[in-house]
Amino acid sequence: MKCKISKNAAKVVRLELDKPENAGKLLRVYVTHAHGDHAHYGMGIDEPTENDVVVSTDSGIDVILEKGNDFLDGVRIDYFYVPEEGFAVTNPTKGNHGDH
Q: Where do the domains of the chain lie, and which CATH numbers do they carry?
């Protein structure tokens, strides 16, 4: 499985992971809702279980993904400052380029 994190997103995620209360935890990306040929995504700070795979990214941040969930393979995490500050999680490999 693959996951990509942009530079902006990595900076924000690293700040959260470096908090003392998140010691030893990783970023989790999950599907909040799937319909048709695409999905919507969420994120959280969590610990992996036996149902997960931990994917290393080129940003140096490991990400927890649910094993066997095709909507998560190839997911991309971005962070935008305009027009609204926040994360955007998409999966371009599945034709998902943003919420509708």
A: 3-94 (2.60.300.12)
